[in-house]
Specification:
Largest sheet: 8 strands, mixed
Number of strands: 8
Strand content: 5-15%
Order of helices and strands: HEHEHEHEHHEHEEHEHHHHHH
Radius of gyration: 21 Å
CATH class of the largest domain: Alpha Beta
CATH architecture of the largest domain: 3-Layer(aba) Sandwich
CATH topology of the largest domain: Rossmann fold
Number of domains: 2
Helix content: 40-55%
Strand order of the largest sheet: 3-2-1-4-5-6-7-8
CATH superfamily of the largest domain: NAD(P)-binding Rossmann-like Domain
Length: 275
């Protein structure tokens, strides 16, 4: 695959945590850039040393040095520390033509334009399965983002999962479904595994059965193109065991709980933004 750095120039990360590492792993695994073309600014020397030794990237505690020659700057810090991490001195060190890409959850484009004024900005909502190459990422560019930079962003996140380009107005709902969704799924896997243990299965086997069932079922939805209800009908015999189990789930309000979970996540996101 052609290296995206021909379009983007050097790529800099501000923040070298788990999500940044997953993106770096995807970029290098797909041979989209050379390790020497990736720079990471992180305040923890041990983390910088780990990233350098593991991936060969240029990692340093000086954020200004990390961004000074970058064409694409990826903000990968926690949303609550955005003002402390993205300082005016750091912004001044960014090349004026650099595009800024943010994976900072609840930080919207309006806020990003205030944090990095004058730069083209891409708001990105990934999720944690990015770490195993199975992420779901939504990308919302502003009007200044070039077609080449948008393609580069799609390629980067496509190297570690699936990508959709969306209007920013959809991001909050997407975050509540796929951004928070792994947490919901982990809880459901844990619950199904517990039920298996209660039914007499060994813990390790129950977890494997539950996790693979979720993984395989999701793959069927994606690869067949069938509505989940159609696939459910295919495994639900009249008067059988599956419909009995589904009846119990409906009685316990599992479907309604999913509605409530998404709405609660959206409400909290609005609160975090101070709206």
């Amino acid at each position: 695959m052609e290296k995206i750095t021909a379009q983007t120039g050097a790529i800099a990360f501000i923040g070298g945590g788990a999500m940044a590492e997953a993106i770096i792993k995807g970029i290098l695994g797909a041979q989209l850039a050379q390790p020497g073309e990736i720079f990471v600014g992180d305040p923890t020397p041990a983390r910088c040393e780990y990233l350098q030794k593991t991936y060969g990237v240029q990692a340093m505690v000086d954020n200004k040095a990390a961004v000074k020659n970058a064409g694409l700057i990826i903000l990968a810090v926690k949303p609550q520390v955005v003002d402390a991490a993205i300082t005016s001195d750091l912004v001044a060190a960014m090349p004026p033509q650099a595009t800024v890409l943010s994976i900072m959850g609840s930080v919207d484009l309006d806020k990003l334009h205030k944090v990095v004024p004058g730069h083209a900005v891409i708001r990105v909502m990934p999720n944690t399965p990015l770490a195993v190459g199975a992420g779901m990422t939504a990308i919302a560019p502003d009007s200044k983002v070039s077609a080449a930079m948008l393609d580069a962003a799609k390629t980067i996140f496509g190297s570690c999962g699936e990508v959709e380009v969306v209007a920013e107005s959809a991001i909050e709902a997407i975050a509540a479904v796929s951004g928070c969704g792994p947490g919901y799924v982990f809880m459901l896997i844990d619950a199904l595994a517990d039920a298996g243990v209660n039914a007499g299965l060994p813990r390790a086997m129950a977890i494997k059965l539950a996790a693979q069932t979720f993984a395989g079922s999701g793959k069927m939805v994606l690869e067949t193109g069938l509505h989940p209800a159609q696939l459910r009908d295919q495994v639900t015999s009249p008067g059988g065991t599956t419909i009995a189990g589904i009846h119990a789930l409906e009685n316990r309000g599992v479907r309604a709980a999913m509605y409530d979970a998404v709405l609660a996540a959206m409400a909290r996101s609005e609160k975090l933004k101070g709206k």
